[in-house]
Amino acid sequence: DGGITQSPKYLFRKEGQNVTLSCEQNLNHDAMYWYRQDPGQGLRLIYYSQIVNDFQKGDIAEGYSVSREKKESFPLTVTSAQKNPTAFYLCASSLQTGELFFGEGSRLTVL
Amino acid sequence: AQSVAQPEDQVNVAEGNPLTVKCTYSVSGNPYLFWYVQYPNRGLQFLLKYITGDNLVKGSYGFEAEFNKSQTSFHLKKPSALVSDSALYFCAVRDIPGNNRKLIWGLGTSLAVNP
After folding, report:
1. Is A78 in contact with A19 (CB distance < 8 Å)?
2. Surface-to-core class of residue A11, CB atoms within 10 Å of its CB (0-12 exposed, 13-18 middle, 19+ buried)
3. Pairwise CB contact (< 8 Å): A4 & B43
4. Nearest C-alpha of chain B: how many angstroms from A41?
5. Rounded distance, CA B48 to CA A110, Å?
6. Disruptive mutation site among A23, A24, A33, A37 for chain B (greatest number of B CBs within 10 Å)
7. B52, B93, B101, B104: best mutation site toward chain A, by most A Cβ within 10 Å?
8. Nearest CA of chain A to the CA of B106: how many Å?
9. List of chain A residues with pLDDT < 50
10. By percentage, how much of chain A surpasses pLDDT 70?
11. What pLDDT, on a 0 to 100 scale, did the predictor assign at position B29?
12. Which of B29-33, B34-38, B55-59 is predicted with the least confidence, judged by mean pLDDT?
């Protein structure tokens, strides 16, 4: 079935460690996105990519990095520079009309 | 400034009653409007969208939304609520100009349907 696969679903990290969240899609969508969700704050855009080998910062990119080497893949690295990384992370891809398809999310907890 | 507002943090309805989840927006030009639903610890699921045409849009799971240009609103409705409709609902709007596909999101409304 077509869709977006995020892994891992749950991840624990010690302070000072970088972690990478995986996002893979087989919908043949050009655009992909990473959002962060915190209670009461809705969705905030971290990075987005409209085409392979190109990506742009969203509203809260500091402390995060991404790559887009393949159309299907858009991994997110949460670096040690991110001051408050505990959150629910959502990856999405979109059609031309902007309708988003989401993965099931990855919950990162910093110990 | 462009924005989306969901004025109610929480909506409570009895099963079988009609439900409304409110959304108002402010964007330049003509908007693309969306509703998404999120169940606990899950990703968001697309419900419906308005791009152009009929102001009443029908979507998944029996939901519909009415676009009102004069009131800049796009309220989500369902004639008869189910307990399984209990979830977090997000309204979003995309402005058309340019190639930027970022959506502007509301903060979400938690819907509780009581048996």
Report:
1. yes
2. middle
3. yes
4. 6
5. 35
6. A37
7. B101
8. 7
9. none
10. 96
11. 78
12. B29-33
Q: Out of B90, B101, B107, whose CB is closest to A98? A: B101
Secondary structure letter of residue A41 according to DSSP:
S
Whether A75 and chain B come into contact, CB under 8 Å, resolves to no
Contacts of B100 (CB under 8 A, 6+ apart): none
Distance from CA of A16 to the nearest CA of B (A): 26
Residues β-bridged to residue B73: B24, B68
CB A73 within 8 A of CB A53: no
The model's pLDDT over A88-97, given as tens digits with 9 standing for 90+, comes to 999 999 876 6
Bridge partner list, B38: B44, B88
One-letter amino acid at A6 equals: Q
Tokens 């596909």 correspond to B101
State the Cα–Cα distance between residues B13 and B28, nearest whole angstrom: 34
How far apart are the C-alpha atoms of A88 and B108, rounded to whole Å? 15
- For position B99, what pLDDT does the model report? 46
Q: In sequence order, what DSSP letters do the residues of A58-110 get, joined into one string?
A: -TT-TTEEE--SBTTB--EEE-TT-S---EEEEEEEE-TT--EEE---EEEEE
Please list every residue in chain A whose beta carbon sits closer than 8 Å to the beta carbon of residue B36: 100, 102
pLDDT at A1: 65
Partners of B44 on chain A (C-beta within 8 Å) are: 43, 90, 92, 100, 102
